[in-house]
Design brief:
By secondary structure, this protein is of the alpha+beta class. It has 12 helices and 20 strands. It is globular and about 60 Å long. It binds 8-demethyl-8-dimethylamino-flavin-adenine-dinucleotide and P-hydroxybenzoic acid (PHB). The site of P-hydroxybenzoic acid (PHB) has 10 residues, from strand 15.
Length: 390
């Protein structure tokens, strides 16, 4: 089989890239290890920057997001017994939308299927060949057969556990990494929202986040040991922990509900530079990871895809290679900005084992500053909505 662009991974990066290329008349095939049900039901991100919303809307896949997503004009920071608001729209003129990642994926899969786009679910043994030539290929197993996809370009959108990154020779690549000694315990529960806006809470017991999914389903997280297991936590213990960390700031109680999903995620910052070699390009989590505190991961994947679409379009329409050549350099500017923001917000909000009282007071001083100085609040808001200069 032959196509112009072979895409590995049907996450937000791979599916959106395939769809944007289709809109420009460029053919692609998407190869995915999981099945459609699995990708459409995995619970991950929830916050979409305005630039992400605009791109999904321009691409014709924003209707449900607009109807069902919730537009938020600010969020709250809770610390030291108080809750203070960051007025995103007032400070930046931009807002965010809370709309689950798996809903974005459903919209993208539906668009690819409606356009008869080539999507292969359930592939295995994916391997990449010939990226130093102008005829690269991807080999894989599908429905018991060994297949080869020949293409002009291979795009690795296969997330942090994928195979693509390792196809860039280690000698040409530098990996930057920081692993945090804590994780997030995430729950989905039934019930009304506890607050109109997200609440990021710093507490001596650890960080907590109150987010939402819909008027009837809520998403909350609390900092935990990354090696802990969800079986160790009864629903009562989870609620006691969330109440202790969030309610104490202003006495307003978050609303308990029936918990129907629990998971623990580790926290990591990671950047692979370069993000390209020969005819192979990486996009999204395949090239970089941020801790979820800044809500940047999905938005960065979308930003990579925007740059890559323009570069591939310039290649096919104008026979230009300059935008492809500078892809990694262009994308990495935004990535490093988001890496810093996510690291900064994570460091300010979490309980850090072994931190001295002096270091704890520095966290509080920083929170006081970003919630009282218009300049500092604006810097935080610009980063959060994704319009900070890079
Ligand atoms: P994905 O979504 O991981 O998709 C990669 C796909 O590739 C497939 N795959 C392969 N396919 C073929 N062959 C192979 N060898 C393959 N190996 C892997 C996988 O099955 C998968 O389907 O990467 P992508 O597209 O780069 O998208 C990245 C985002 O998913 C991720 O950054 C976000 O979920 C991060 N994130 C958040 N981002 C935000 O922008 N806002 C948020 O509010 C937010 N909250 C979060 C998050 C991530 C979280 N977790 C679970 C780490 C909250 C959490 C808890
Ligand atoms: C979420 O709703 O899942 C969410 C919101 C904000 C974050 C991370 C995750 O920073």
């Amino acid at each position: 089989m032959r196509t112009q662009v072979g895409i590995i991974g049907a996450g937000p990066a791979g599916l959106l890239l395939s769809h944007l290329l289709h809109l420009r008349g460029i053919d692609s095939v998407v190869l995915e290890t999981r099945n459609r049900d699995q990708i459409e039901s995995t619970i991950r991100a929830g916050v979409l920057e305005q630039g992400t919303m605009d791109l999904l809307t321009e691409a014709g896949v924003g209707a449900r997001m607009k109807a069902e997503g919730a537009l938020h004009h600010g969020f709250e920071l809770a610390f030291e017994g108080k809750r203070r608001r960051i007025d995103l729209t007032g400070l930046t003129g931009h807002s965010i939308t809370v709309y689950a990642q798996h809903e974005v994926l459903k919209d993208l899969v539906a668009a690819r299927v409606a356009a008869n786009g080539a999507l292969r679910f359930g592939v295995s043994e994916t391997s990449i060949h010939g990226i130093d030539s102008d005829k690269p290929s991807i080999r894989y197993r599908h429905e018991g057969e060994t297949c080869e996809l020949q293409c002009d370009f291979v795009i690795g959108c296969d997330g942090s556990q994928g195979v693509s990154r390792a196809s860039i020779p280690q000698a040409l690549r530098k990996d930057y990494e920081r692993v945090y000694p804590f994780g997030w315990f995430g729950i989905l529960c039934e019930g009304p929202p506890s607050s109109d806006e997200l609440i990021y809470a710093r507490h001596e017991r650890g960080f907590a986040l109150v987010s939402t999914r819909s008027p009837n389903v809520q998403r909350m997280y609390f900092q935990c040991d990354p090696k802990d297991s969800v079986e160790n936590w009864s629903d009562d213990c989870i609620w006691a922990e969330l109440h202790a960390r969030v309610d104490s700031h202003d006495g307003q109680r978050i609303v308990d509900g029936k918990i129907f999903q629990k998971n623990i995620v580790g926290m990591r910052s990671f950047v692979s530079a370069t993000m390209q070699h020969g005819r192979l390009f990486l996009a999204g989590d395949a090239a970089h990871i941020v801790p979820p505190t800044g809500a940047k991961g999905l938005n960065l994947a979308v930003a990579d895809v925007r740059v890559l679409t323009q570069a591939l379009n310039a290649f096919y329409v104008e026979n230009r290679t300059d935008l492809l050549d500078s892809y990694s350099e262009t994308a990495l500017k935004r990535i490093w900005r988001a890496e810093h923001f996510s690291y900064w917000m994570t460091s300010m909000m979490h309980r850090i084992e072994g931190a001295s009282p002096f270091e704890q007071q520095l966290q509080v001083a920083e929170l006081e500053y970003v919630t009282t100085s218009r300049a500092a609040a604006t810097a935080m808001a610009e980063n959060y909505v994704g319009v900070a200069a890079v």
